[in-house]
Amino acid sequence: MEMTGGHDDVHHTADSSLNESMLSLAHPYQPSGIRMTLENADLWQSFHSIGTEMIITKHGRRMFPHCRVRVSGLQPFTNYVITMDIVLVDGFKYKWKKEQWEMAGAADPHPPCHTYMHPDSPAPGRHWMKQPLSFPKLKLTNNTLNQHGHIILLSMHRYYPRFHVVQADNPYALRWGSVQSFSFPETAFTAVTAYQNPKITKLKIDHNPFAKGFREGGTHSHSKRLSNKSPPAKRPTLDRDDLSNSSPSLQRMPSTSQFTQMEASRASTQQSLKGGHLSGSALEPDPSESIHVEPLVLREYNCSSDEQMVPASMPYQPYRSEYGMFPYPSRDPDGAQIFLHPPPNSRSASEPCIQQHGYYHQYNTTADWSQSPVLSYTTW
DNA sequence: TCCGCTGACACGTTTGAAGCGT
DNA sequence: AACGCTTCAAACGTGTCAGCGG
């Protein structure tokens, strides 16, 4: 079993991969050894490189690829709750035009977002670290009246999944001092009710076993099916979680920095986007900081709740901005932000907590934890 | 007219119960 | 009786398409 004390080597490995600009932002010590790795990273990268789209339907649609992560650095015998939510990348909506996504104005008002709790929660750290955890049953919907706990998204808006590791014996006794949030830029996607990019369709058909019926015949496969009935297939036990087991992993290495460093980082990010042409999603790193599948680096802030993010290792299909500016994110307008409220008095009201690669978080301190509606939105 | 959304459709996959043998 | 394996059928999940509505 992977024990907390055994990660020093990995930390060193990752730290040695820091480039100069990142080193200048790194904090000399790390407050937490919790790390999260995206297991099916290469699959995500395949989609990310052409612009991931996720279908949302009234009754809920599963994600594909779904999120599969490995956690390490937990205390083996301490209980943790692991949750996932999906937050807006920025404050814009998009449209598919001329074979690419481009901005189509400000984002629509967003409904409250559900937080999806992993069904194993709460569980001791050794359980979480024993094997990768995935969220294959999570469904996305555009039905704001959804009563099934599906995560509500808006079509034509960009999102990314976010994971929270909370030290807690039960979901009703979360300890704010130990919340760690993780996100992966390559998991950003555009929510759609129908696929826009045919490349995405093809990639999904190639990788998703549920779509095998569409592998041949292209767009005319539907009519083909009508005349080519095949006998019922045997029942091979195919574990969808194993579809990308061989994926190289993207590792999330905690590092810390402080507010002044965040400002520098933001300035750097904005500078990298000069010219108005987006080099990628709002989560996309400066290309000069792009790291490949080697241990990745993130920037994190030493606060009660951290969000850790690593750059994607592949360029993303460019987004065309009609505004000549980087789609600077909104303040996480969905309800999920409330999940990250720190306990009262834990930080100043205006202190920004996280800003990485253009993504900017600021804690809302208008509600304290005891009043947080997160649990009422949490589903598992 | 354009564009996004919805439901029907047929197919493959998953799941769990039932049956059988050891 | 308990266990493990196989078989079967229903449920589920998928992308495509036509039609609808704003």
TrEMBL record:
> Where does this polypeptide localize?
Nucleus
Determine the domain of life of the protein's source.
Eukaryota
Q: What is the recorded name of this protein?
A: T-box domain-containing protein
User: Region labeled Disordered — which residues?
Assistant: 211-289
Asked if the keyword Lipoprotein belongs to this entry, the reply reads: no
Ranges of residues in domain T-box: 38-216
Q: Does the keyword DNA-binding apply?
A: yes
Q: List the Pfam families hit by this protein, alphabetically.
A: T-box (PF00907)
Stretches of Polar residues bias are at: 244-273
Per the UniProt entry, what is one GO biological process?
heart morphogenesis
Gene Ontology CC, one term: chromatin
Write down the PROSITE patterns for this protein, in alphabetical order: TBOX_1, TBOX_3
Q: Print the keywords alphabetically.
A: DNA-binding, Nucleus, Transcription, Transcription regulation
- Select a single GO molecular function from the record's annotations and give it: RNA polymerase II cis-regulatory region sequence-specific DNA binding
